Amino acid sequence: MEAKDNREITLLLQRMQNGDAQAGSELMELVYGELRRLARSYMRGERANHTLQPTAIVHEVYERIVAGAPVSWNSRSHFFAVAATQMRRVLVDHARERRAEKRGGGDVAVSFQDVDLPSVQRDEDLLSLDLALSELQKNDERAARVVELKYFAGLQDKEIAEALGLSFAAVRRDWEFARAWLAHRLTGAKEKGAGV
Questions:
Q1: Alpha-carbon distance 195 to 18, whole Å?
Q2: With 2 labelled, which of 17, 78, 96, 105 sits at a CA distance of 20 to 30 A?
Q3: Mean pLDDT of 91-114
Q4: Beta carbons within 8 Å of 67's beta carbon, 6+ residues apart
C-alpha cells in the first residue's frame, strides 16, 4: 500500500473510533482487497470445494473487528495486527468445527507459501500450527506475535516493528527464533507421528 493509503486508513480508524459509522464502510472499501488477498493466500492449499471461501473469511474478520470490543487504533499496522488475530481465530474456529463434524478427522491444511518455515511442509495442519503458536506464546509471547503478524496479517518486518513498538532488529531476532522453534516443533511432532 502507498503512504497515502496508510494515512487514509489511520484517519478512517480514528474516525471509526470516534463513532463515525460511515468511516467503517470507507475503511472496508480501502482494506477489502488486501484482506481478501491474504485470505486467498491461506486458502490456496485447500481443496477446491472447501466450505470456507476468502470472501467469507474477510467478512467474518471485519465483522469481528467492528463488533468486537472498542480498540484505540494507532495505525494501518495496528489494524492489520488485529485483523491477523481475528483471521487466525476464524480459520481455527472453522477447522475445529470441521474436526468436530468428522469426529477427529479432516483437519484443515493451510499453505505456508508466503512464510518460509524451514523443513515444514507447505500444507501443514492449521490446528497443529495454532497449537504450536499457543505453546510458543507461553515461552515467548512476543515471538509468537511476530509470527502471527507476519503470517496472518502479511505485515513486513518494518510494519511489525511499528505495530509492536519494537526495533527492526528485535523483530528479525524474534522471527528467526520463532521460525526455528516452530520448524523444530512441527517437524518433531510429525516425525513422532503424534499431533502437536
A1: 45
A2: 17
A3: 61
A4: none
Give the DSSP per-residue string, 25-57.
HHHHHHHHHHHHHHHHHHHTTS-TT-S--HHHH
Are the beta carbons of 140 and 178 closer than 8 angstroms?
yes
Q: Which long-range contacts (CB under 8 A, 24 or more apart) does 49-58 make?
A: 50/108, 51/94, 51/98, 52/91, 52/94, 52/108, 57/87, 57/90, 57/91, 58/32
With 0-12 CB in 10 A as exposed, 13-18 as middle and 19+ as buried, what is 70? exposed
What ranges do the domains of the chain cover? Answer: 3-192
Q: What is the pTM of this model?
A: 0.67
More confident residue, 88 or 193: 88
pLDDT at 131 over 60: yes
- Which stretch of DSSP H or E encloses residue 145? helix 141-152
pLDDT of residue 120 exceeding 50, the answer is no
109 contact partners, CB below 8 Å, separation of at least 6? 45, 46, 123, 124, 125, 126
What distances in angstroms separate CA 174 from CA 14, 82, 154, 159, 178, one per listed residue? 30, 19, 16, 14, 6
End-to-end Cα, the chain, rounded Å: 36
Is the separation of the CB atoms in 151 and 126 below 8 Å?
no
